[in-house]
TrEMBL record:
ATP binds at K12. This is Glutamate 5-kinase. Belongs to the glutamate 5-kinase family. The lineage of its organism: Bacteria, Pseudomonadati, Chlorobiota, Chlorobiia, Chlorobiales. It holds the Pfam family PUA. Pathway: Amino-acid biosynthesis; L-proline biosynthesis; L-glutamate 5-semialdehyde from L-glutamate: step 1/2. Keywords: Amino-acid biosynthesis, ATP-binding, Cytoplasm, Kinase, Nucleotide-binding, Proline biosynthesis, Transferase. Catalyzes the transfer of a phosphate group to glutamate to form L-glutamate 5-phosphate. GO terms for biological process: L-proline biosynthetic process. The keyword RNA-binding does not apply. It comes from Chlorobium phaeobacteroides (strain BS1). HAMAP family: ProB. It is found in: Cytoplasm. The gene is proB. Signal peptide: none annotated.
Length: 361
């Protein structure tokens, strides 16, 4: 048997992979996935498992009246269902003599660097003890604006935080299909190299099967992570042996080719969308300097046109272009008040140092 293609991976399992057509947890599929993960563990692969399915598992057990708001309903179903989900995993992994741990997180847990590092330390310690972390969003407490878009986003954060080699998104479809033309059946795209092509070219404009957790979000996350140097696979979790095939390097699903790696703080900052405390608008000269391929430039106060919101030194802020498009995120060296005093002036130290700056593709 050859060495596995990757040593450290995040596997994200979607609700539709592990539930049957009545919406109940599908034990056969779960068993098959757990047995593949156990084989990967025995071949030395470190696995972080992110599993959805709490809400579905709750729905199969609790019947709700219509008097609950959608948020309250989600809280009730997820908190009930998460127990069932994790118990099922515990039992299945136990058959392979493997221990698991339950980690429930919210988006705001990733907000400040210290908290982010705490989660990382916890996951590293579990790895040391050969315990598989089974991660999910803490749906009982994370509501609306501080929710992850979906578990694809949460898993992407874990993948970049843990510096994995690959992020495997298991859904109930085979991967990204070329829906741009009229080809029937549509062609499966086996590989996307974002250095030379854009996944949007395969997506039919106006097609709206791309809701929460849909293909569009998956591709956006895949694009972001491949920019960090992580390989991303989108594949069908119900195909028997899919994980083993992927790790054996066999073609399956869609692979986003990893680009040059990005490390450390920049990764954390890159995931700060929606968590920023304020924003600055910069002029075109400054934007050009930031995007320069020849030099690594920091954001200087001289290029700032306006300051929005209130932030303090050390907070993450959004950077907007003159026409108000978000072009990136960074950690501020000055408060919003200090920035207002310095903006447009020459000679001051950068508001955002290059090492603390992440620009959008
Ligand atoms: N956290 C939700 C659950 O366990 C799922 C979110 C998602 O599917 O992305 O049911």
């Amino acid at each position: 048997m050859s060495d596995p293609l990757y040593q450290k991976i995040v596997i994200k399992v979607g609700t539709n992979v592990i539930t049957d057509n009545r919406g109940e947890l599908d034990l056969q599929i779960l068993e098959e996935l757990v047995s593949q993960i156990s084989e990967l563990r025995s071949r030395g692969v470190e696995v972080f498992l992110v599993s959805s399915g709490a809400v579905a598992a709750g729905r199969a057990k609790v019947t709700l009246n219509e008097d609950l708001s959608p948020i309250a309903a989600r809280q009730v179903l997820s908190s009930t269902g998460q127990i069932r989900l994790i118990n099922t995993y515990t039992d299945l992994f136990e058959k392979h003599a493997l221990k698991i741990a339950q980690i429930l997180v919210t988006k705001s847990d990733f907000r400040d660097r210290q908290h982010y590092l705490n989660i990382r330390t916890c996951l590293e310690s579990l790895m040391k003890y050969d315990i598989i972390p089974v991660i999910n969003e803490n749906d009982a407490v994370s509501v609306t604006e501080l929710m992850f878009t979906d578990n694809d986003e949460l898993s992407g954060l874990i993948a970049s935080m843990m510096h994995v080699d690959a992020y495997i998104i298991l859904s109930h479809i085979d991967g990204l299909f070329d829906l741009s033309g009229d080809e029937k059946p549509p062609r499966l795209i086996t590989s996307v190299d974002i250095a030379t092509e854009h996944f949007h070219q395969y997506i039919k404009p106006g097609k709206s099967e791309f809701g929460r957790g849909g293909m569009l979000t998956k591709c956006h996350i895949a694009q972001k992570l491949s920019r960090f140097g992580i390989a991303v696979h989108i594949a069908n979790g119900q195909t028997p042996g899919i994980l083993l095939d992927l790790l054996d390097g066999k073609a399956a699903g869609t692979r986003f080719v990893p680009q040059k790696p990005v490390y450390g703080r920049k990764r954390w900052i890159a995931h700060s969308e929606g968590l920023e405390k304020g924003a600055v608008t910069i002029n075109t000269g400054a934007e050009k300097a930031l995007r320069s391929q020849e030099r690594a430039n920091s954001l200087l106060p001289v290029g700032i046109e306006s300051v929005l919101g209130a932030f303090y030194k050390g907070d993450i802020i959004r950077i907007c272009s003159e026409n108000e498009e978000t072009i990136g995120y960074g950690m501020a060296r000055y408060s919003s008040e200090e920035t207002k005093e310095l903006m447009g002036k020459k000679g001051a130290k950068p508001l955002i140092h290059y090492d603390y700056l992440y620009l959008m593709p």
